[in-house]
Amino acid sequence: MKDNGLSRRDVLAAAGAGMVATAILPSLAQAAPQDADELTKKLIGNAAVKEGRVTLKLAEAADSAGAEPISVAVDSPMTAADHVKALHIVSEGNPNPGVSSWFFTPRSGKAEVAFRMRLGKTQIIRAYAVMSDGQVFGAKREIKVTIGGC
Amino acid sequence: MPADIKLKVPSSAKKGEVIEIKCQVIHDMESGQRKDAAGKTLPKRIINKMVMTWNGETVTSADWYPSMSKDPFVTLYAVASESGTVKLTFHDDNGEKYEASREISVS
Hints:
The structure holds 2 protein chains of 2 kinds. Chain A is of the alpha+beta class. Chain A has helices spanning 8-24, 26-29, 34-44; strands spanning 49-51, 54-57, 68-74, 84-91, 98-104, 111-117, 123-131, 136-143. The model of chain B has no long low-confidence stretch (mean pLDDT 95). The A-B interface holds A 66-68, 71, 91, 94-96, 98-110, 112-118, 150 and B 18-19, 31, 33, 54, 57-79, 81.
């Protein structure tokens, strides 16, 4: 300690600042609840998630948290050689992180779905598209919820 | 509860065209989170799986979880391959299956 020129007071001040920082930061750093992370791992394994190709449409603020419209489209030619195999929708803030998983074939024509979902509170919704070559693309969107609908 | 299903499939399409299919299943999709008046948790009972086939061949399928809304309403797509039957099947937690189908002529 003495060698690097820090007094006890400096160290304590730094520790204090650190405590303040960690008190604020966890909510940002761990915004992705563990349950959503665990489910994501189950669904896509340890695949590196790339950005792009997935368009996730949600209102900025929920109109009807019990049945809020959501649509997800993945850019893909949907041929036998190059198509979207699966599309997983994951909730970071609902009691159960699973929303729905869609499994496409070239006969699906396009990898796009629309449906309605429940939202317990303001949260981030994630979408992961698994391509036929194993690549995974993802998108996230926050939706504000004033009255939960779970 | 046996599900009432509303299914909209175009009656005709050109071969190779991507058509839109809309479907709503009337189902409580009981999430397992709600309590009754006595404070007892209502058991989870949802449609956990949906399968769409075209002349018996799977086009798109899905696994559903309790975050799906009550009376699920979905929009899907399919390539108009040949004339025949588009069928959607829904699997309830209790083992029941609900089906709806429409004929489509493809030219």
